[in-house]
Write a structure and sequence with these properties.
Low-confidence stretches: none
CATH topology of the largest domain: Rossmann fold
CATH class of the largest domain: Alpha Beta
Number of strands: 8
Number of domains: 2
Strand order of the largest sheet: 5-4-3-6-7-8
Mean pLDDT: 93
Largest sheet: 6 strands, parallel
Structural class: alpha/beta
CATH superfamily of the largest domain: NAD(P)-binding Rossmann-like Domain
Bound molecules: nicotinamide-adenine-dinucleotide
């Protein structure tokens, strides 16, 4: 089961951009959308799009494509975005505050219920309506709230220490924005986010294009 999930990861990463395109088409009043149209919008191969959409369980009709509304529902259900999930955040700095105010996360069902910091100036001052508590007592607050998901946006030096407290308090999924490879028990899921990876891809693509131009590629 875990192996199947991992092999589906690239498809899962593409689903949000499909959803964006399908929602646009739906708003414009079209009842159906084809895999070819989605692929064209996103510079992908139609076969790839059809394969990715197959994991949601919805089947397209020959010549017509996929019913747009049903496809939106199927993708959101597959992603678990049609359910509210409570989350807490640790480290209310530049990145943490920005994430707390990011409306798209809320529209995906992610509801931030509490945040924690060590800075006395931040504690007690809600950010985007979310209460900010001291890290002292973080474990018991998390247990009281029965939250299972944590966003980690503390400095790298604090990451493992924070993760240990989170795991001890019953957190089973950590969205890790720090650079640290966290050591957690097998049953805890960690997804590491890295803006630098996106920039790395962009930079290499720029260099590849430049080289192609210099070497006269069409
Ligand atoms: P920041 O200094 O603005 O914020 C860090 C916050 O964490 C501060 O409010 C600080 O008081 C608090 N803090 C420190 N120790 C703590 C602890 N033990 N428990 C709770 N709170 C604590 O830093 P930032 O720019 O927001 O970056 C935060 C983290 O995010 C860093 O690890 C950084 O490398 C990472 N980051 C990741 C990405 C990405 O692409 N994933 C992008 C930017 C920053």
């Amino acid at each position: 089961m875990i192996r199947r999930k991992i092999s589906a990861a690239p498809s899962v990463r593409r689903l949000p951009s499909y959803l964006h395109v399908i929602k646009q088409v739906d708003t414009e009043g079209s009842e159906y959308i084809s895999g070819t149209v989605i692929a064209g919008e996103l510079n992908l191969e139609p076969i790839q799009v059809r394969k990715d959409l197959a994991i949601t369980g919805i089947i397209g009709k020959p010549k017509k494509g996929y019913p747009a509304k049903a496809l939106i529902t199927a993708i959101e259900h597959f992603l678990g975005w049609d359910e509210i999930q409570d989350a807490i955040l640790v480290g209310v700095g530049n990145l943490g505050s920005a994430l707390m105010g990011y409306p798209e996360l809320r529209s995906h069902g992610l509801r931030m219920v509490a945040a924690f910091d060590i800075n006395p100036e931040k504690i007690g001052n809600p950010v985007h309506g979310v209460p900010v508590y001291s890290v002292d007592g973080m474990g018991s607050t998390i247990q009281d709230l029965a939250v299972k998901l944590a966003l980690l946006t503390v400095p790298n030096t604090e990451a493992q220490r924070s993760a240990d407290i989170l795991v001890g308090a019953g957190i089973t999924a950590i969205w890790n924005f720090t650079k640290v490879k966290l050591k957690v028990p097998d049953e805890v899921i960690v997804e590491k986010e890295d803006i630098s990876s996106g920039y790395a891809i962009l930079r290499v693509m720029q260099q590849t294009k430049k080289n192609e131009k210099n070497h006269g590629a069409p």
